[in-house]
Amino acid sequence: MWSSLAIAARSLGPGLLLVTAAMVSLALVGNWHQPMLVSNDGIQYLEGARSLARGEGFSTRILIYDANFAVGTLPAGQTTFPPGFSALIALPMLFGADDVAAAVAVSALALVATGLLLGRAVSGFLGALLGAAFLLNFQGLTLTTVVASDVVFTAFAFGALLCAGTGLGRAATSPGAGRSSFWQAGALAAAAVACRFAGVFLLAALGLFFGVRFLRRRALDRFLDGVALLLPGALMLGALFARNAALSGDFDGGALDAFSRPWREVLERAFWGAVTVVGVAPRDAPAFVPQLALTAGAASGLLVLLWPQRAQLGLAVAAWRREPTVGLCLVFVAVYLGTLLHLSHTRNSIVLLPRYLLPLVPALFLPVGRALAGLLADGALRPAPAALAAASVSLGLVLGGFAWAPEARRIYFEGNPVVEGHAVLHGPMPDGRRVLDHVRAHLPIGAPLLAEPGHAIGRLLGHPTLGPIGSAYSGRPWTPEQVLTEVRRHGVEHAIHLRGLSQPTDTPGFWRGVATNGPPPWLVPVFEHPDVTVYRIAPPSSRLPSPGVTPP
C-alpha cells in the first residue's frame, strides 16, 4: 500500500504542485488587479489596443515621447512600442472585453504558460519546484497586474528557446528532422519581437548560436535550419524598423538618449536588479538579511552535498553542457544581459530595472534544473537531501520576492499617477460636486489637451493629450517656445496640470517653470484647485485675454 502511495506521489505530485502554484498565481493576480492600476507604458499599450480594435491602425492619442511628436499628427502612429502586446489585448476587446481586464488576462495566461513550460522542460519535482517558483515570482505577478508587456515577452522568448532546442535534438538524429520545430521557434521569436524591441537580443542570441553551429559544419541542412529559425523574426523586425523610420525618422522609436554612466554604478544596478527579480529581496526590503541567509544557507547545503561526488559532478556537468536547450538558454542570457549592461552604460539606466531582467529567470532556471536532474540521475546527489535543499531555495526565492511587497506597492500601487489622479479628480468640492465636474465644465468634449502628467490625464479624461516628458526619455529641454510650437501644430486650446502626486513623472522643464515662476502669458488659468489647474491657451495673433479663474 505504502509503495503504491509513493509511486502515485512521484507520478502525480509534480503536476499537482504546478497546478496548485498556477491557481494561487491566478488568484493573486485577480486579487491585486484594479481597473485604475495601469503603468505608464501600459497606458500606451491600451491606446494601441483601442486603435487596433477600432480598425485605425497602431496609433496613440497620448503623445509623450519625442518620436510621437515627430510624427506630426494627433493621433500619431505609435513607434516607441511595437504592436504585438496591443494586438493581443485587442482580440478580447473585439468581443466586448474591458481593455485593462483583457491585458491582465493575456499576461496571466503568459505567466501560467511559462511556468508550466519550465516545469515540463525540467520534469519531475525539480521542474515542478522551479515552475512554481516562477509562477509565484513577485515581479512576474506584479507586472501581470499593471499592464506591462514583460511577462508576454518572456513567454514568447522562452517558448522560442524551447522549440529551437527541440529542433536541435531532432536534427542530431537526422539532418532536416527539426525543421518544423525551427519554424515554430522562428514564429515565437517574431512574436517576441512584435511585443518588445528587446526581441532583437533574442534574435542575436539565436543567430550567434546557429552561426557557430553552421561554421562547425557547413552543410545545406544547417543553413536551412538557420533560415527557418531567423527569417520570421528578421522580417518582423525589419517591418517594424521600416515603419518607425517612415513615421518618426528614427528606426528604433527614439525613446532613449545617449549619455555615459560609470561601470561601477552599472554593475551595482545589475546586481540588485538580478537579486530582486529572482526573488532575493533588495537591500532596502525589511526581510533582506534573513531572506538572503535562508537562500544562501540552502544553496551552501547543496554544495556540501555535492562535494564528496565532485569527480562524478564534473562528468554530469560536462554532459549537461552538451544539451542544446541549455546552450541556447545560456547564450541568450549572455547576449541579453551583456546588451543591457552596455545600454545602461551608454543610453539609460532604466534598462537594468528588475522588470527588464524577468526574461532571464526561466532561461536561468532551466539550466540549473537540468544540471540538478542530471546529478540525481547519475547518483551524484541523494534524492531526499537534494529535494529538501531545492525546496528550501525555491521557497526562499518566493518569500524573498514577497518581502519586496511594500516597496513594490509603493512603486506600482500607491505611487501610480492614474490611481492617485482618479482620487484627486473624484474628490469633493465645496458645492458638493466633484473636481472632475468642474474640470469637464471648462473642457470641450474630446478636445486635445496639453497635460501634465500626460499619461495619466489622457487615461483619466479620455482626451487626446500632449504630455512632453522630461530628460530621462526626451532630448528636448521643452522650453515654453517648444511647447507652444507643438500646441499650435496640433490645434490644442486647453491645458491641465495635475499636481500633488506622491511619485510625479519625470517632469519636463516647461512644467517645472510653471510651478516655479508661474505660467507663460499664453497659458491663462480658468479653474484652480490645490491639486488641479485648468488653463485656456490664448489663440495666435490676438490680444492675450485676462484670466477668468473659477475659484475652488
Write the topology of this structure.
Elements: H1 2-32, H2 40-53, E1 59-60, E2 62-63, H3 66-71, E3 76-77, H4 84-93, H5 99-122, H6 124-135, H7 138-145, H8 150-173, H9 179-195, H10 199-216, H11 220-248, H12 263-278, H13 288-306, H14 310-321, H15 324-346, H16 354-357, H17 360-377, H18 383-403, H19 405-414, H20 417-425, H21 435-441, E4 449-452, H22 454-461, E5 465-466, H23 480-489, E6 494-498, H24 509-517, E7 523-528, E8 532-537
Parallel strand pairs: 2-5, 4-5, 4-6
Antiparallel strand pairs: 1-3, 6-8, 7-8
Structure, briefly:
With 552 residues, this protein is mainly alpha-helical. It has helices at 2-32, 40-53, 66-71, 84-93, 99-122, 124-135, 138-145, 150-173, 179-195, 199-216, 220-248, 263-278, 288-306, 310-321, 324-346, 354-357, 360-377, 383-403, 405-414, 417-425, 435-441, 454-461, 480-489, 509-517; strands spanning 59-60, 62-63, 76-77, 449-452, 465-466, 494-498, 523-528, 532-537. Helix 22 links the parallel strand 4 (449-452) and strand 5.
Task: Please characterize this protein's 3D structure.
Residues 544-552 have low confidence and may be disordered. A 6-stranded mixed sheet has the order 2-5-4-6-8-7. Strand 7 and strand 8 (532-537) form a beta hairpin. It is mainly alpha-helical and 552 residues long. The protein has 24 helices and 8 strands. It is globular. It has helices at 2-32, 40-53, 66-71, 84-93, 99-122, 124-135, 138-145, 150-173, 179-195, 199-216, 220-248, 263-278, 288-306, 310-321, 324-346, 354-357, 360-377, 383-403, 405-414, 417-425, 435-441, 454-461, 480-489, 509-517; strands at 59-60, 62-63, 76-77, 449-452, 465-466, 494-498, 523-528, 532-537.
